[in-house]
């Protein structure tokens, strides 16, 4: 990274145990969007890790060269470290954080459960990919951002106002690769989705539910947009996530 971490975008962790929770933020966002959920899990006694993903939380120029391998590698390492000191681990994520949480659950059957908030799991339409490639052909490395999709006018997401196109394309490639592996997810899922999501298509929830092998508890967030962890339903997300995490790590 070349720029300093923005105030509020810092990674966060908390001691606890015997069980742990890995909490992951979204594309172009930062830990600020997930700190409330991380703190709720910590207050419930979980050891918590909320990493800052590479290229995020500083300046968009730092994100331009990053790719899925960078973000998934950071998530994998954080999960491994947490598992090394905890009996059971739950993963939780918003948007791309949900992609990462699903990817971890597909590759690590020992994960106890996953909390997915408006996860990006459905490969994008060809028309969207064409738009991104057209931007590159025109010489643009970035397009207008997708952050801050909130119904609550008093809420604010700390996110970049631009999207690095090549980084986004690497995420879309990852979604294509993840789709056939969703059936490998056998742990319980808590899936919380917003019908009025202007970033991830609402169809993503059904796409995921129809492919995973484990049980899915679905919650509809009627009052929130995409960044639901900062929106009107944030308290419900936190309470349900804590109850779910306690249930899947019990016994």
Count of helix runs: 8
Taking Cα atoms only, what radius of gyration do you get, to the nearest Å? Answer: 17 Å
What is the total tally of β strands? Answer: 9
Neighbour order of strands in the largest sheet: 1-3-2-4-5-8-9
Oligomer: single chain
H/E topology pattern: EEHEHHEHEHEEHEHEH
- Could you tell me the strand content as a percent range? 15-25%
- Tertiary shape: globular
Give helix % range: 25-40%
Mean pLDDT: 96
Distance between the termini: 42 Å
Low-confidence stretches: none
> Which structural class fits the helix and strand makeup?
alpha/beta
Tell me about the largest β-sheet: 7 strands, mixed
Please outline what is shown here.
By secondary structure, this protein is an alpha/beta fold. It has eight helices and nine strands.
Question: What would your notes on this structure say?
Answer:
Helix 4 links the parallel strand 4 (89-94) and strand 5. Helix 1 packs across helix 8, helix 3 (68-85) packs across helix 4 and helix 5 (126-137) packs antiparallel against helix 6. Helix content is 37%, strand content 16%. It has helices at residues 35-43, 60-63, 68-85, 96-107, 126-137, 165-178, 203-209, 234-249, and strands at 12-14, 20-24, 47-50, 89-94, 113-117, 142-144, 162-164, 189-193, 216-220. The chain is built from eight helices and nine strands. It has 251 residues and is an alpha/beta fold. The strands form two sheets. The protein has a seven-stranded mixed β-sheet with strand order 1-3-2-4-5-8-9, with helices on both faces. Strands 6-7 form a two-stranded antiparallel ribbon. It is globular, with a radius of gyration of 17 Å.
